[in-house]
Specification:
- 73% of the residues lie in helices and 0% in strands.
- It is mainly α.
- Helix 2 packs parallel to helix 4 and helix 3 (70-159) packs antiparallel against helix 4.
- Keywords: Coiled coil.
- Residues 135-153 have a biased composition (Basic and acidic residues).
Length: 334
């Protein structure tokens, strides 16, 4: 299938019409607007990634499993570390996105400057073509009018050929001659203008073809550049997913090394307080000072009352009881 090109399909039958050229310019302006929209989109996405990266970095600094120990603590520390690495990778991706947006902006400005020169040249040609065409059409009207004046003058001479008024005939003949000269001059000027507008047209045709070829090339470059830019953007996002998964895989590997029983034993060995439980609470009799040999709880009945023997009779002649050799003895104990 034959490729279609701008230079073959954007002409107009009217020499002064610029409809085809204007359609191409509108297409290029729409393309420039698309470049700006994609550029703004990528800058906005970069800002989102940067904010997410900073929030994620702040989150990685928060306390998480500070009081944990052994293998689970190592896994949680790895979890925080890789979260920090993920945040840094997102920050790097945000910077890469801004660089791609900058390249797109530079590409857009470069095309704008190249187009500006060509558009200025074409605008000048359009004005020259329109002006010369108007001048040619005006000279054509003058030429046609002078031709009609000449024909009218010739007819007047022919109608008065047989008249006896010689002066009148000579006057008509003089007017006819003047009308002929005027028509010849108008014809020369008209013919000259036609040649001039033809040269302007030829120059415009060449420049129009050049402009179409240049604008088509710019359009192709723009489409290709935008396609590659979006492709690169998607590659960055995909690579970020791969990078994040690789970092998370390190956490998964650490979690695989997390041993529940080992952590339990580590805690026991580190914080154990003894391997023997406390003994039973024994019942102690207030009066006998004996301890109950059984583990059974004390009875709720009152303890049995032990009766003492009768008090000694002070009138008894027991000298051991009644006589105390120590003069300082007293029953009051201090």
């Amino acid at each position: 299938m034959k490729n279609l090109h701008f230079k073959d399909f954007f002409w107009n039958s009217d020499l002064t019409c610029t409809g085809g050229y204007d359609a191409i310019i509108q297409y290029l302006n729409d393309g420039k607007r698309t470049c700006k929209e994609v550029e703004d989109f990528m800058k906005a996405r970069a800002s989102i990634e940067e904010k997410y990266a900073k929030d994620l970095l702040g989150l990685s600094k928060k306390v998480c499993g500070h009081n944990e120990m052994n293998s689970l603590k190592r896994s949680l520390d790895m979890f925080k570390l890789q979260t920090e690495h993920v945040s840094l990778s997102h920050l790097q991706m945000a910077q890469s996105m801004r660089e791609e947006a900058k390249k797109l902006e530079e590409f857009k400005e470069k095309q704008k400057e190249a187009r500006k020169k060509m558009e200025q040249q074409m605008d000048a040609l359009h004005k020259q073509k329109s002006s010369q065409f108007k001048k040619t059409m005006d000279s054509k009207k003058t030429y046609e009018q002078k031709c009609r004046d000449k024909e009218e003058a010739d007819q007047n001479v022919n109608r008065n050929t047989n008249t006896n008024n010689t002066k009148h005939v000579e006057k008509l003949y003089s007017k006819a001659q003047q009308a002929k000269q005027n028509s010849e001059e108008a014809d020369r000027l008209y013919h000259q203008n036609v040649i001039t507008v033809g040269k302007v047209r030829d120059e415009w045709l060449k420049e129009h073809v050049k402009a179409c070829e240049m604008f088509e090339k710019q359009a192709m470059e723009r489409i290709n550049f935008l396609r590659n830019t979006v492709w690169t953007h998607l590659n960055q996002l995909s690579q970020q997913c791969v990078t994040s998964d690789e970092l998370y895989e390190e956490v998964r590997k650490s979690l695989e090394q997390c041993d529940v029983q080992e952590d339990i034993e580590h805690f026991v060995n580190l914080r154990q307080t003894g391997d023997k439980p406390p003994g039973p609470v024994m019942y102690e009799n207030f009066y006998s000072g004996q301890r109950s040999p059984t583990v059974a709880p004390p009875s709720r009945l009152p303890p049995p009352i032990t009766r003492r023997g009768p008090l000694p009779d002070p009138n008894d002649n027991d000298t051991v009881y009644s006589t105390v050799p120590d003069a300082g003895y007293s029953v009051i104990q201090y």
